[in-house]
Design goal:
The protein is of the alpha/beta class. 36% of the residues lie in helices and 26% in strands. It folds into 2 domains: 126 residues, 2-Layer Sandwich (Double Stranded RNA Binding Domain); 115 residues, Glutaredoxin. This is Thioredoxin family protein.
Length: 277
Amino acid sequence: MKLKKILLLVFFTNILLNASTIFTLSGVKKVYLVVEISGKTIPKSYKSMIMDSLQTMTDDLKIDTKGYDPRSLAVLVNETPINGSTMINIQLLIGEEVKRLDNYEKTFALTYQDMGHFVLKDGDDPEDAFEDTFDTMLLKFSEQYLEENKKISKVVINEENFASEMHYETNYDEAVKKSKKLQKNIMLVLVSNFCPWCRKFEQRVLLKNEINEIVQKNYIPLILNKEKDPFPKEFDTGFTPIIHFIDHQTQKSYKNVIGYNNKDEFTYILRSDNVAK
């Protein structure tokens, strides 16, 4: 009996060490979304942002969230004080009723769990660290879900396919021709290799439907990698990302935005441009 227990322990330890997760997302078609924030460091206003992100992800994955369901997809945020700093803990969970194998009694169990953490010092703004951690958790969930539910044909947009999936031009001369023909200004996004803020700007801002609608309606969107794509060097300021708004008649930049701007900031920038009102 003792040997049997040892063998079982070795077996399960081996599974845990060699598996990316012990949970499966196969067959999860409907969930009820829950967000709870405890503690004083993370503003309660983040709740709507978290809920919007969960809704966007589940919509993309074709997971039904309408009405109540005994299976919950929950985000729980709490904090732990550590030597004058604060550790923020984020849990992404699925909880649901399951039946025990031996007596078939119903019990509540966690059928998915992922955890993320980051540490804040007094006065730190939690926004970027929170979004970095939470976005990574959602991406991990999405990739596993897509892998285990292969009937769903969902394109994960990344830096390699961003331009084609979001309908951005990738050739400066062609974009100029198109802007002249349609009499629309160019929105040039300059990025570079190994630029984390470029990736964040693509994923957190340019991918948002409300942003893309404004961009596609009012501009010829063009994205170029400054390290490999040809373009007039007058647009290179040395920083990335940088966004130039280029007049379709003069091909001169009449406004530029240097560095990362969040969704609300970039929406204001677009709305303040005369052509995007």
